[in-house]
Amino acid sequence: MNVAEEYGSLVFNDRIMRTRLPREVYKAVQASIKLGAPLTLSDANVIANAMKDWAVELGATHFTHWFQPMTGITAEKHDSFISPTGDGGVIMNFSGKELIKGEPDASSFPSGGLRATFEARGYTAWDPTSYAFIKEHTLCIPTAFCSYTGEALDKKTPLLRSMDALNRQALRVLRLFGDSKTARVSSNVGSEQEYFLIDKELYLERRDLVFCGRTLFGAKPPKGQELEDHYFGSIRPRVAAFMQDLDETLWALGVASKTRHNEVAPSQHELAPIYATTNIATDHNQLTMEIMRKVADRHDLACLLHEKPFAGVNGSGKHNNWSMATDVGDNLLEPGDTPRENARFLLFLAAVIRAVDKYQGLLRVSVATAGNDHRLGANEAPPAIVSIFLGEELTAVIDSIDKGSAYAQKEKTSMEIGVDVLPRFPKDTTDRNRTSPFAFTGNKFEFRMVGSSASIADANTAINTIVADVLKDFADSLERADDFTQALNALIRKTVQEHRRIIFNGNNYTEDWVEESRRRGLYNFKHTADALPYFVDEENIALFERHHVLTAVEVRSRYEIMMENYVKTLNIEALTMLDIARKSIMPAAGSYLQDLIGALNAKQSVEGLPAEPESSLIKKLAGLNADLYNRILTLEEKLDAGSSDTTEHGKYYSGVVFPAMQSLRAAADELEVWTAREYWPFPTYGDLLFSV
Ligand code: ADP
Ligand code: MG
User: Which end of the chain is more exposed for a tag (fewer CB within 10 A), N or C?
Assistant: First the structure.
């Protein structure tokens, strides 16, 4: 592949638009992309036609409005370009109306009661800020998905609204610093994607992986990740071929895949793209997950994106690197060279600190799913407690602001905010804290709690909105001040003093931190069912309404969808467990038992042979199988009960059903340990984790 030539070759990007659109129309699209200006229907017609011609030349026959409903995955419904000519032939046609608006049947997408099925109509609206692209002979048009009464039915609409909110408030703050040239502030995101690759044939033999994306049974193999010999290890040929194919496929789609390496667990890997504006980064991450699965399939592999495919080894997350930048390319989280730039940096930093402290619960909610529950709080990923890592140097700066003392740099120069120059923080700080859920890494924050299979839209909607909210408070108070510099210094100091408790530079995995965070009054929502109800807290509803990101009705409907999704996920897992335990594990253990009994009988027909070890083994296995049977009955019984209230139902699944599932698993895993290999009905952890 000639990368420079092929990169973005399937994308209707700026370069293509400039060459294929009339000058005036091109300018209108640019205004729409950069400033959100609406496009006229006549412009849309011209664009649609150019898009269609371009797509048809590249072999496309269909178009689709590509959108991100609340299922968390992308949805598409294909329409062909064909239009009959009346003489038995067809021409390829695509109108501006079809480009701007689509009307998929919305009745089967989760809406959380927003829309009764009889008025199931929703529509998709073109998002010109994200380029159209061609995937499998289909022109895909990125869109937002709304109900006819205007409620958001997807993950993209609130994300776009949150970006606007951040832009509005950040601009107010920049104006106070005398910045009159910045026209727009955007958040940027680079999301590192972790995943597992296993052999497809083995994958297909595991119904738990096929139905649930994670293993529901499996004893610990003799070798796991303890030798740490996989992280950054040399990449095996089959995986390397997959990665190359994946990168090339993504590059053609304009996804800037940059870094690839092996991760900590056996069979675990990571891909990181070059960061982009948040909504593009979100679209690209959705696309990346989809392409990963498809490319894996081509290589007879299965790509597992679940947060915890295997118990006992690391799960997968998505490190969400987030920053704010102006349209002239200034990163607002980058310490600068002048006192003014530094004061600006400290103000934006203080805004993030206050936002994360004030809305820690909301950040936790934004990553709460059944899958991520296995990860957060287990000793590998960030804990369920939200805190910020700032690093030694910046913490010293914050300390000196807090105490009102001069900050002494290593070279012994002192500073006061807004007066002297801050040291430049090395981007690759050596004391990177891998255990922190929200870490400052030189010029961006890395939010590490996002689950590997999740859309990054929810987390970034939350981050954009909470930071916008604090910037609004800041702007409100600074706009009223007589002496800007003095007010600014006082504001930064007050913010630091009020929100210091959220800063924690130590090891987040320890029990001590759990204790300490409790003393500091930080939230610790261990499970999704505990975290989600906080989403509909009055304070959070007011926040979303204040910034026009979500209405109260939208927040409540999203709550219903998320909790329902949690319950449904656990329910499917429980049913799958029962099915596998009843139909595969019990019979397998039974056959082995039967053969052991046969062996014992045969032995006893020979005089003088001991009954051991068969006799003991038979007793042990019979006991374990009886345990398994009883636990099947218990889980069945628990599944039949429950509550009609959403919150109670969630709590019931987390507090009653989940423990019953764990208990069933424990019995099965112990049985696996004692059952001869040839009897075990599906591939083991050892087979799966070391298959490629
Ligand atoms: P590491 O694994 O050491 O954290 P990676 O290189 O794997 O680093 O990933 C870092 C991610 O952060 C990349 O996606 C990168 O593009 C992104 N990134 C770098 N600078 C910024 C920035 N200013 N804003 C947002 N993301 C950024
Ligand atoms: Mg990385």
Answer: N
Nearest ligand 1 atom to the CA of 190 is 14
Dihedral of CA 117/123/129/133: which sign?
A: positive
Q: Distance, CA 315 to ligand 1 centroid (Å)?
A: 20
End-to-end CA distance of the chain: 25
- The tens digit of pLDDT for each residue in 433-486 reads 788 999 999 899 999 999 999 999 999 999 999 999 999 999 999 999 999 999
Q: How far apart are CA 25 and CA 99, in angstroms?
A: 15
Q: Considering every ligand atom shown, identify the ligand nearest to the alpha carbon of residue 432 and give its number.
A: 1
CB atoms near residue 551 (< 10 Å)? 15
* Angle at alpha carbon of residue 34, lines to 30 and 35, rounded to 5°: 110
The amino acid at 645: D
Of 321, 425, 427, 464, the one to substitute when testing ligand 1's pocket (max ligand atoms within 8 A of C-beta) is 321
Report the nearest atom of ligand 1 relative to the CA of 331.
23
Q: Are 46 and 23 in contact (CB under 8 A)?
A: no
- Whether the per-residue pLDDT at 108 is higher than 80: the answer is no
Q: Is the peptide bond before 382 cis (omega within 30 degrees of 0)?
A: no
Q: Is 3-154 a CATH 3.10.20.70 domain?
A: yes
275, 288, 446, best to mutate for ligand 1 pocket (most atoms within 8 Å of CB) = 275
All structural domains of the chain with their residue ranges? 3-154, 157-179+330-549, 192-317, 565-689
The CA-based dihedral angle spanning residues 489, 494, 500, 505, taken in that order and rounded to the nearest 10 degrees: 0
Q: Which residues line ligand 1 (CB under 6 A)?
A: 188-190, 192, 259, 272-275, 319, 321-323, 331, 443-444
CB 205 within 8 A of CB 338: no
Task: Give the whole-angstrom CA distance, residue 448 versus residue 320.
Answer: 6
Tokens of 19: 């060459």
pTM over 0.90: yes
Q: Hey, CA dihedral for 490, 495, 497, 500, is it positive or negative?
A: negative
Quote the tokens at residue 311.
């118990």
H or E stretch including 203? helix 200-204
User: Which residue, by CA, sits nearest to atom 1 of ligand 1?
Assistant: 192
pLDDT, tens digit, 9 for 90 and up, residues 448-459: 999 999 999 999
CA–CA separation, 688 and 224 (whole Å): 11
Can you name the CATH fold of 192-317? Creatine Kinase; Chain A, domain 2 (3.30.590)
Long-range contacts of 328-335 (CB under 8 A, 24+ apart): 328/181, 328/182, 330/182, 331/443, 331/444, 332/170, 332/185, 333/440, 333/443, 333/444, 333/445, 334/443, 335/422, 335/423, 335/424, 335/425
Residue 448: what are its φ and ψ, rounded to 5°? -105, 5
- 408 CA distance to ligand 2 middle (Å): 32
Judge contact between 611 and 561, C-beta under 8 A.
no
Say if strands 90-92 and 276-277 run parallel, antiparallel, or are unpaired: unpaired
Domain over 565-689 is classified CATH 1.20.120.1560: yes
Q: How far apart are CA 655 and CA 530, in angstroms?
A: 10
